[in-house]
Amino acid sequence: MSRIGKQPVTLPKGVQVDIQGATVKVKGPKGELARTFSEQIGIELQDGQVIIKRPSDMPAIRALHGTTRALIRNMVAGVSDGFSKTLQVEGVGYRAELKGKQLVMALGYSHPVPVDPPPGISFSVDEKAKTITVSGIDKELVGQVTADIRNWRPPEPYKGKGLRYVGERVRRKAGKAGKVG
């Protein structure tokens, strides 16, 4: 039995779950999320908790058990608290700013890099600390948008310039040895 999958998902105050077949809709103070799961996994609502059950021990169904529970838990956490990821802008002349809702970055290219937020995502920029915060209720979307922004200029190993996650360690390399003699 999956250690993650057999744990029930407790619903915080103000969060409602609607289960219709394989579709789960979660509504809370921050918004609403819906997702369709596999028909092979049983999802039930009992006493303010969501319980995930599996009918057999086939490897494919066992793999879905813990995954389904984790996805539902992330949906509940998203509509009640929300998710955010922070990027740090490192490098001379590298900066980010907001123009309306659009994020505009100067990353050493000959042109500014604009990023429009998809629905459900918001950006905030601290120009003094040189950080970009991506916020939203869908954990998967927040992570994907943050990764897409980071791909514009990943941190390079020689000077450490680029966009990195806060707390990310960049393994530095020594440069050329130079001329000898």
Overall residue-averaged pLDDT value: 91
> Ends: how far apart?
67 Å
CATH topology label of the largest domain: Outer Surface Protein A, domain 3
Helix content: 10-25%
- Radius of gyration of CA atoms, rounded to a whole number: 21 Å
| Total number of domains | 2
List the strand order in the largest sheet: 11-12-7-13
The total strand number stands at 13
CATH architecture of the largest domain: Alpha-Beta Complex
CATH superfamily of the largest domain: Ribosomal protein L6
Order of helices and strands: EEEEEEHEEEEEEHE
Low-confidence stretches: none
Q: What is the 3D form?
A: elongated
CATH class of the largest domain: Alpha Beta
Residue fraction in strands: 35-45%
Overall SS class? alpha+beta
Largest sheet: 4 strands, antiparallel
User: What's the total helix number?
Assistant: 2
Quick recap:
Helices cover 19% and strands 36% of the residues. The longest helix is centred in the middle third of the chain and has 22 residues, at 59-80.
Structure description:
The protein is built from 2 helices and 13 strands, in the order E-E-E-E-E-E-H-E-E-E-E-E-E-H-E. With 181 residues, it is of the alpha+beta class. It has a 4-stranded antiparallel beta sheet. Strands 1-6-5 form a 3-stranded antiparallel beta sheet.
